[in-house]
Amino acid sequence: MTEPSGRRERKKAATRQKIADTALRLFLGRGYDAVGIRDVAAEADVAVTTVFAHFASKEALVFERDQDFEQRLTRAVTDRPPHEPLIPALHREVQALVRHCTAEGSAPVRRMIEESPALREYEESMSLRHAQALAAALAADPHLSRSTTACRATARFAIDAYALACRADDPGTTVDEVFRMIEAAWEATAP
């Protein structure tokens, strides 16, 4: 995540992080369904309106790095050097994101998400949005020259590679396997 530059931005970012950390601690300690927004606000010592100023919903508190995730994926496309092939750049970024979701201590969060229908639904809608943003970045790159369908499918497969790996016994191997398929499909759609 990029560091906010001004004092006000740093203070807002610190408040946001404090709310997210507090929420996650409460959710893991008491159970997601047992904790309300008012509980989070009280424990973080902020107003309920402050929580909603930073997070659109209770589910968003769990996925507080959602926007950063999406930006990292799209930047893997838009910020890569012109000579660098797309799929290896995207593969590296997804591997890095998977390392984060499978880091030590992440299992209780993954279990909480899997056990909550509301969180699973939110995660799926988030994945669709990420795939749309990634597909738009692919389609906008004039050097890639692929069809809209190829861009959408590639984006969706990349997002699915992440989702599958976060739940796999061997996350790295899972990402590698899916990206071999993605690369083959991408090459097959070349003009």
Automatic annotation (TrEMBL):
PROSITE patterns: HTH_TETR_2. This is TetR/AcrR family transcriptional regulator. The keyword DNA-binding applies. Residues 13-73 form the HTH tetR-type domain. The keyword Nucleotide-binding does not apply. Pfam families: TetR_N. Residues 36-55 bind DNA. Keywords: DNA-binding, Transcription, Transcription regulation. SUPFAM superfamilies: Homeodomain-like (SSF46689). InterPro entries: Homeodomain-like_sf, HTH-type_TetR-like_transc_reg, HTH_TetR. PANTHER family: HTH-TYPE TRANSCRIPTIONAL REGULATOR BETI (PTHR30055:SF234), HTH-TYPE TRANSCRIPTIONAL REGULATOR RUTR (PTHR30055).
